[in-house]
Amino acid sequence: MRAVVQRVLSASVEVEGRVVSAIGPGLLVLVGVHEADTDSDADYICRKVLNMRLFPNEKTGKAWDQSVMQRNFEVLLVSQFTLYGILKGNKPDFHVAMPPAKAKPFYTSLVEKFQKSYTNDTVKDGIFGAMMKVSLVNDGPVTMQVDSPSVQDSSRSSNGDASLVPDGEAAVPNETR
């Protein structure tokens, strides 16, 4: 699983001329689901995104000190299979992305993991499979890419050890696994 995480002042998703989700300060997370992803990949992405220290601590002035949860900010998740696109000549090929029939329930379960790990009200999402217009005001700009262990194992990325949940980080609740 791949997540492109952007720190935003605001973000929204529009489908067919109607805003379906909007957030204020927080994180816009574009999510690509790989054909080989499992629940452990979703757990990893959920834990990493919610605990990434991308926000300054306003009390101490320390940069890169607080997570979206520590700041009580919002999260907007947007499914984006094109994150697994590769070019074959000049034409994009998406064969490593999870097929839509399997990806839709998998993505829905990811959204639920985020909601159970944080709070229902602060985690929003777009509409899976829809043509969406995503608007954002990037803050920084700050943009990070996080790949789950299955992606790392295939030597496409490296984000550290997925087996550890360091002190102070939110673990994904057992009922979502």
UniProtKB/TrEMBL annotation:
Superkingdom of this protein's organism: Eukaryota
Keywords noted in UniProt: Cytoplasm, Hydrolase, RNA-binding, tRNA-binding
Span of the signal peptide: none
Subcellular localization, as worded in the UniProt entry: Cytoplasm
Regions of compositional bias (Low complexity) in chain numbering: 145-158
Top enzyme category: hydrolase
Renumbered residue ranges of the record's region Disordered: 143-177
InterPro entries named in the record: Daa-tRNA_deacyls_DTD (IPR003732), DTD-like_sf (IPR023509)
Pfam family for this entry, one: Tyr_Deacylase
EC number: 3.1.1.96
Reaction equation(s) it catalyzes: a D-aminoacyl-tRNA + H2O = a tRNA + a D-alpha-amino acid + H(+); glycyl-tRNA(Ala) + H2O = tRNA(Ala) + glycine + H(+)
GO biological process: tRNA metabolic process
First-listed, main subcellular location of the protein, grouped into a coarse class: cytoplasm
GO molecular function, one term: tRNA binding
CC terms in the record's Gene Ontology section: cytoplasm
HAMAP family listed in its UniProt record: Deacylase_Dtd
Membership in a protein family: Belongs to the DTD family.
Matches recorded under PANTHER family: D-AMINOACYL-TRNA DEACYLASE 1, D-TYROSYL-TRNA TYR DEACYLASE
Name of the protein described by the UniProt record: D-aminoacyl-tRNA deacylase
Species of origin: Brachypodium distachyon
